[in-house]
Amino acid sequence: MKIIIVGGGFGGLTTAKALAGTDADITLVDRTNHHLFQPLLYQVATAALAPGDIAVPIRSVFSRQKNVNVLMGDVTSIDRKGKKVILSDGRELPYHIMVMAPGARHSYFGNDNWEQHAPGLKTLADALQLREHLLRAYETAENLGMNSGRRDVDDSGYRLSVPSETTDLAPWLTFVVVGGGPTGVELAGAIAEISKRTMMKDFRHITPEMTRIILVEGQSRILTSYAPPLSELAKKSLERLGVEVLTGDMVKQVDESGVMTTNGFIASKTVIWAAGNQASPLLKSLDTDLDKAGRVRVVENLSLPDDPDIFVIGDAAVFNSSDGILPGIAPVAMQQARFVAAVINARMKGTVPPVRFRYNDKGSMATIGRGKAIAEFGRLSSAVHPPG
Length: 388
What we know:
Elements: E1 2-6, H1 10-18, E2 25-30, E3 34-36, H2 41-45, E4 55-57, H3 58-61, E5 68-72, E6 75-79, E7 84-87, E8 92-94, E9 97-100, E10 104-106, H4 124-148, E11 150-154, E12 157-161, H5 169-172, E13 174-178, H6 182-198, E14 212-217, H7 228-240, E15 243-247, E16 251-255, E17 258-261, E18 264-267, E19 270-273, E20 277-279, E21 296-297, E22 303-304, E23 307-312, E24 317-318, E25 320-321, E26 324-325, H8 330-349, E27 364-367, E28 373-377, E29 380-384
Parallel strand pairs: 1-2, 1-9, 2-5, 9-23, 13-14, 13-19, 14-15, 21-24
Antiparallel strand pairs: 3-4, 6-7, 7-8, 10-20, 11-12, 16-17, 17-18, 22-23, 25-26, 27-28, 28-29
């Protein structure tokens, strides 16, 4: 049985690994040749980790699993009638069963022109681009400071006192993160750590007091997927790090000079988008029912309503559980992958496959700077932070 898996993220990799030792002939297709641990992308973006720390070659993952072929390619469409996957170079891959796990990109809610001024964080390339931009912002501010102030000597060495009328520095040292979900909170906390505590000691003409880190969230509180008390604890932790948390504040416009919100304009050369997700446009070629975010509405066994040979998992799918629509996070994708693998394996053996996917929520955690985090595990919730 030929099985095509589209996407080498958590869902795709877990599906293929769960089918080890079966008679399946599996081809895993991804546009890159590495699997990425996305939850730590912000660490690469803020220069805390190297790219190799969170990426592993997909081929090395399956080096000993002989029923998996790894193909680096860009899938452009799906021919459901012909049961073929079409690649950008014209190749066609036939399948008996297909598992779609193409992931998602950031969504600008119809304002795609904002992306050039407010990049998101979904791929290794995104993280490296953001890291380069952040470092360039500090260096630009240092150069501006050197040219527009005077040097004062204190116990810690040379520090620049910039005249109050000098405003060129401010946009370069103002960092705006749009979106108060886990990614936005983690990014804001990490940028605050390097701006207020770590990196600034290496500069002579800019100081931590000159930096501003602003987290903009359109809803009434950050981390809305967590209980309100944890959300409030996270907000206070960010504020202690020096982050300005603006809730109930909607973005109206983003350009090269900064961001306009409902509460006014923020001049900034660094605006980072972490406000929403949009499913892969590839899913449109399935010609099936999609939600507003472009995700496929799947039935109880995670297949298409009218095609039992196509499964969609992870943040490419919208699945209604007893607790509502499942979030697009790694644990959901991995559990769905194991379920789909069990369905496929039962078909190959001629046994009765499992009927309905059920998600086992083992909890979630969001980090807020070094040594700080909030977590929920069922009815148990907690905040972790170092003393003082």
